[in-house]
Structures are given as structure tokens and as C-alpha cells.
Amino acid sequence: MRVLLGIHHPLNANMGAPGVTLALGQALAARGCQVDYFSYDDAYPGLRHHTTLHELRFPWMLTAHLLRAASRYDVLDITTGDAWPWMRLGRPGARARHALVTRSHGLEHTFSERLRADARAGHLSLSWKYPLYHGGYRLWEVRQTLLRADHAVLLNTQDAAYATERLGVPARQLSVIPHGLDVAFQGLPSPTPSAPGAPLRVACVGSWLALKGRAEMVAVATHLYAEGVSFTLTLYGTGNPEAEVLAAFPAGAREHVRVVPRYPRAELPRLLRDEEVLFFPSHSEGFGMALVESMASGLTPVSTPVGVAPQVVRDGETGWLVPMGDVAAQVAALRSLAEDRARLLRLREAAQVAVRDMTWRDIAERTSILYESLLRSPRTV
Fold it and tell me: What CATH code would you report for 2-180+359-375?
């Protein structure tokens, strides 16, 4: 089976959606598929920095490529919002027996609704340009691909429900297939007990953004410090300079906070080795790879119910689901873990077991089965 994976990003193993696209392609290749890619690297060769204009042009660059190359492929697996011009033209050049899958790395519509809600609540400001493209035309493009593709792959059940109930995509044309864990996160050692009297070691993994729960990180650290809870909070992958991030915390709490602005992706298991809890107060996630990777590393999550969290975090068994923006609930969950280290260890062990089978090998198998089922129902071009 020959597969084209298309994505509106440069391919980079250290980036979110591009990294998982490469991982999926490698896992499909290990199953015997021939896998090619079409990305910004192909549409804009030699260009290192990309803008909204490049994203706007990408569906047409992809269409030009497919006019030349579609006949080579059994399956075209393309990110949402990108293949609609080619589909509207009638899929010229495609094989009579082929499958077109559109893949979401986080449904833009649910992300947009959360972004607008946070803007209304005063957590962030949206540019006047936002409704013109990302909050307008781009949403139209995504819906077009969801409605016109042979099948859509989404990352979580909330996005699937939204696509069916709000966008009119038939449920039979949707599958929820999550991401897999890289080899570096498989077979990691089991958690070890906390040292007597040691502070609760809390990690946050993600960008220093309002949508990632930046305000809650500051508020929770402030409350834990005020309540006399012994803790450390390490922020991994903020993307912002250490001094800028630390300045957001009050002086007393700041002494308990450490910032790691950037790290090589392969280093994350080592970085998380000495942590105990993942605090994941995100407002919006397509999947939440950091959540699953942290659980695989033996951290128990205190997470909002975003992305894959409702599927892997079982309250009181593998961690805690806490309401978005509810600082009191988040503080209470972390304080309870600090006070009962025996229970914390049990939760950490259960969290690690809960994601143990989420491998790219399994994801590739499920994806191949989907491809094969679509090809057994050929589409006449």
C-alpha cells in the first residue's frame, strides 16, 4: 500500500503535529507501507519561516502536487482544511480505487470556541484579524474537508461529537485514533516512593500561554506557598525566557519554581525522571501528548478534561480531573497528593500502566485496518 501523508507544517520531529506525522509514517513503513510526505518543506523549499499567507496558499500548493502525483497513491491522508480544492475539482488524477482520509491534530472549531471564550473572560486578547482567517475562512476550509473526505480521523471523543453534532459529519465517516508513545517513553522504570519529608515535585509541560493554563499555574503555586505546602514546580518547554516566566510569580512562590524554556524531545523522559505529578491546567488540547508522555514517565496527572484526558485519567485511580479554571479544586488535588504519599505512589503506578499500550505500532495497525476497509469500498472517480 502506498500512502501520502500531507500536513500544513514543516516536518520536524521536535514539533507536535509534524513529529507525530513522522512517527506515524515510520510505524506504517514498518508494517510494509510505502510512505511519502507533502509538507511546507515541499511546498516552500528552502524557506525557514512561515506565515498565515503560507497556510492560506498551502491547499492550492497541495492541489498542484496532487494533479501531478495522486495516481501514485492508494491512500491520501491529509490534514484537515488542506485537500478541499482538489476534492472540489473531482480528485483529478486519483486512482479509481483510492481512499482520501482527512486527519485532525485538534479540531480547529473546538479550539476556536475555547479561544473566544477565554477572550470574553479577559484571559487573552484576539486580534481584529482573527475572524478573517483562523476564526473564519479556515474553519470553513476544515468543514469542507470533513464533509468531502472518505473518512476523518480525530484525536478525541469531544472533537468527534462536535463534528457530528455541529458540523454535520456522519458518525460512520469518523474514527477516533489517538497518538502513540515514542520508543523513548516505553519500558520506563516504575515510580519510586518519595523521600520522607521531601517536597511534592510538580511538573508542567507546555508553552507559556494563556490557553495552556498560565494563570492557573501562577495562582496554584501562590496558594500552595501561602498554605505552607512543601513543593517544587518545574515548567518544561515554556518557550519564553526564564526571567520573563519567573516574573509572573510572587516573590515567595517564585523560590519554588524552576523554568526549562526548551529541551530536545528525546530528553523529556530523563527530565521527568525525578518528578511526581503533572499539573496540566490546559484550556484546549487536540490530544495532549505531554499528558500521556508524563503518565508513561510515572507521573500522576492533575488535569483539566481536555483532549485525551477524559479517556486516560480516571478520578482517584490514575490521577485527578479538575474543572477548567477552578484554582481551588486544583490546589486541593495537589495538596491531597502532598499529604498522602502512599496514595500518590499508587496513582503514579496506575497512571503508567494506563498508557503502557499506547504505542505507535498499535496506532499504525489501527490506521492500516482503516485504510484497508476504505479501499475495499472503492470510490469511482
Answer: 3.40.50.2000
For the chain, residues classed under CATH 3.40.50.2000 are 2-180+359-375, 184-354
pLDDT at residue 64 tops 70: yes
Amino acid, res. 297: S
d(CA 167, CA 183): 36
Rounded Cα gap, residues 180 and 367, in angstroms: 12
Taking the C-alpha atoms of residue 248 and residue 211, their distance in angstroms, rounded to an integer, is: 16
**Which letter does DSSP use for residue 200 in this model?**
E
Q: What is the pLDDT of residue 380?
A: 41
154 pairs with which residues across the strands? Answer: 176
Q: What is the pLDDT of residue 378?
A: 63
Give the model confidence (pLDDT) of 293-344 as tens digits: 999 999 999 999 999 999 999 999 999 999 999 999 999 999 999 999 999 9
Q: Would you state the pLDDT for residue 196? A: 85
What are 340's three cell numbers? 498522602
Q: Please write down the long-range contacts of 322-325, taking CB distance under 8 Å and 24 or more positions apart.
A: 322/281, 324/281, 324/283, 325/216, 325/283
Query: Which residue is associated with the grid cell 524531545?
Result: 265
Q: Does domain 184-354 have CATH number 3.40.50.2000?
A: yes
Q: How far is CA 219 from the centre of its chain?
A: 24
Residue 35, judged by CB atoms within 10 A of its CB (0-12, 13-18, 19+), counts as buried
Per DSSP (E only), the strands in the chain are 2-6, 34-38, 75-79, 99-103, 151-154, 174-176, 200-205, 231-236, 257-260, 277-280, 300-303, 320-321
Phi, psi of 300 (to 5 degrees): -90, 140
Contact at 8 Å (CB) between 235 and 245? Answer: yes
* Per-residue pLDDT reduced to its tens digit, 172-218: 999 999 999 988 898 899 999 988 889 999 999 999 999 999 999 99
How many whole angstroms separate alpha carbon 30 and alpha carbon 361? Answer: 8
> What's the rounded Cα separation, in Å, for the pair 150 and 166?
19
- pLDDT digits 0-9 by tens, 69-93: 999 999 999 999 999 999 999 999 9
d(CA 192, CA 273): 10
What is the distance between the alpha carbons of residues 91 and 248, in angstroms, rounded to a whole number?
51
